[in-house]
Amino acid sequence: AQSVAQPEDQVNVAEGNPLTVKCTYSVSGNPYLFWYVQYPNRGLQFLLKYITGDNLVKGSYGFEAEFNKSQTSFHLKKPSALVSDSALYFCAVRPLYSGAGSYQLTFGKGTKLSVIP
Amino acid sequence: GAVVSQHPSWVICKSGTSVKIECRSLDFQATTMFWYRQFPKQSLMLMATSNEGSKATYEQGVEKDKFLINHASLTLSTLTVTSAHPEDSSFYICSDRDFHTDTQYFGPGTRLTVL
Question: What percent of chain A has pLDDT over 70?
Answer without folding.
Answer: 96
